[in-house]
Amino acid sequence: MTTQWLAIAGVWCGLGTMLAGQSAPVTSTGAPPVAVRGVELDRLVAVVNEDVILESDVDEERRLVAFQPFRDTSTTQTRTQVIERLIDRSLILQQAQLQPDDEISDKQVEEQLNTLRKEIPLCEVYHCETEAGWARFVTAQGFTMPELIRRWRERMEVLRFIEVRFKSGIEVGDDEIHMYYVKTLLPQYAARKAAAPKEETIAKRIQEILLQQQVGNLLGDWLKSLRAQGTVRTIEPGEAAP
After folding, report:
1. pLDDT value at position 12?
2. DSSP per position, the chain
3. Structural domain boundaries of the chain?
4. How far apart are the C-alpha atoms of 166 and 214, rounded to whole Å?
């Protein structure tokens, strides 16, 4: 399963922008958030059927990009694009819950994160091969280890659902893998002045990335259908929450 959510990927409570002293919004756990008087609380940015997306989710999603070593760094996604990706992820997770599968184990999450430690270029600076270095890197991105594990498990759930539903019949040739390695990965590593892994060692990972790109077209049409069937609403700054 790929470590990158490219196509859509490739998911979150508040009642608008509120200040301490006003009615406290209820979090997804059912408890009001803790806040200091005069400090802005988390703001609701979207409602996806019965799920909510908060400003903190948008911030967290942006920070999570640091854990995607093979992402396209030539463009930066806007806040609106990040919100749209979170909406899509919420829709997918809702559908996945209707088709229950075996829970992704802690061991599976740990295995993917251990692989990431070897592939993230910036990890060389933090010496992520050690537990202390990996912990420093995770903290530097604004995550605790339990938060990272929770979010990565969700991403794995999303990707597993997409692969089962859409990937059948799609093939990626060796020439496509080589072109991606030469034209996308090598320039990224060169820009960071980091040694790129050999093509044969990451060919399978590249294949998964390219599969996700092809799946994206099928997935996009399916998500449009889900949006039309359900209730999806984004909340603009200053707009009253529903």
Report:
1. 28
2. --S---S-------SSS-BBTBPPPPPTTSSPPP--TTSB---EEEEETTEEEEHHHHHHHHHHGGG-TTS-TTS---HHHHHHHHHHHHHHHHHHHHS--PPPPHHHHHHHHHHHHHH-TTHHHHTTTSHHHHHHHHHHTT--HHHHHHHHHHHHHHHHHHHHHH-TT----HHHHHHHIIIIIHHHHHHTT-PPPPHHHHHHHHHHHHHHHHHHHHHHHHHHHHHHHS-EEE--TTPPP-
3. 44-234
4. 9
Q: Provide the CB-side half-sphere exposure for 173 (13 A, CA).
A: 3
Residue with tokens 């703001």: 43
Q: pTM (2 decimals)? A: 0.65
70 pLDDT above the threshold of 80:
no
Spatial distance between the Cα atoms of 149 and 164, rounded to a whole number of angstroms: 22
For 44-234, the fitting CATH number among 1.10.4030.10, 2.60.40.10, 3.30.56.10, 3.40.50.2000 is 1.10.4030.10
Mean pLDDT of 130-151: 96
